[in-house]
């Protein structure tokens, strides 16, 4: 197993009790939201303007996330089309609790797709230079 995150660190936050599912582990929808925000930041930077999420082609939750974990999203742009961008994203957690800081591990990977849009919400060509 690869033990290094792929891509750059895009976001970091703390998993809170309010983000839990009924099993008292972190809700998958909250993790998807963190992925979408992080990929969206990268898409805005690459396209230099407004973007929207158009699709998610894959997502895999490999391990649960627990309250108090530091949740980090890493990622990279793997494709830039005329108006669209594809991001491979990974979520890693670093548990910090009474026993101290534990080694980080990957909990999720996903591929998100974004489209650059203009002020009317229409697809906008990305300047690749
Ligand atoms: C995103 C949106 C502007 C695209 O408009 P559209 O007229 O359907 O756009 P097009 O068919 O010209 O496709 C635009 C690009 O998206 C790509 N695309 C279309 N469907 C796709 C899909 N399901 N997955 C990935 N890429 C897709 C196209 O290949 C094209 O890429 P390219 O220009 O790099 O070749 C429009 O569908 C939209 O507003 N969707 C709602 C977005 C939204 O509300 N997201 C949630 C909140 S952010």
TrEMBL record:
Q: EC class of this enzyme?
A: hydrolase
Q: Give the EC number.
A: 3.1.2.20
Give coiled-coil spans as residue ranges.
Answer: none
Quote the PROSITE patterns the UniProt record gives: HOTDOG_ACOT
Q: Which domain of life is it from?
A: Bacteria
List the InterPro entries.
Cytosol_ACT (IPR040170), HOTDOG_ACOT (IPR033120), HotDog_dom_sf (IPR029069), Thioestr_dom (IPR006683)
Q: Which CDD domains match?
A: BFIT_BACH
Record has Hydrolase as a keyword = yes
HotDog ACOT-type domain sequence ranges: 5-120
**Gene Ontology MF terms in the entry:** fatty acyl-CoA hydrolase activity
Pfam families tied to this protein: 4HBT
Keyword terms, alphabetized: Hydrolase
> Do you know which NCBIfam families this protein is assigned to?
PRK10694.1
For this chain, the family text in UniProt reads: Belongs to the acyl coenzyme A hydrolase family.
| Name under which the protein is recorded | Acyl-CoA thioester hydrolase YciA
The gene coding this protein: yciA
């Amino acid at each position: 197993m690869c033990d290094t995150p792929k891509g750059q660190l895009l976001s970091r936050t703390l998993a809170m009790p309010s983000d839990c599912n009924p099993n008292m582990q972190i809700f998958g929808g909250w993790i998807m939201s963190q992925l979408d925000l992080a990929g969206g930041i990268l898409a805005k930077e690459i396209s230099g303007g407004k973007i929207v999420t158009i699709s998610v082609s894959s997502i895999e939750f490999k391990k649960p996330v627990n309250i108090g974990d530091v949740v980090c999203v890493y990622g990279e742009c793997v494709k830039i089309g005329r108006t669209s961008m594809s991001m491979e994203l990974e979520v890693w957690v670093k548990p910090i609790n009474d026993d101290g800081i534990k080694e980080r591990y990957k909990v999720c990977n996903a591929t998100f797709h974004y489209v650059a849009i203009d002020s009317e919400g229409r697809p906008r060509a990305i300047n690749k230079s």
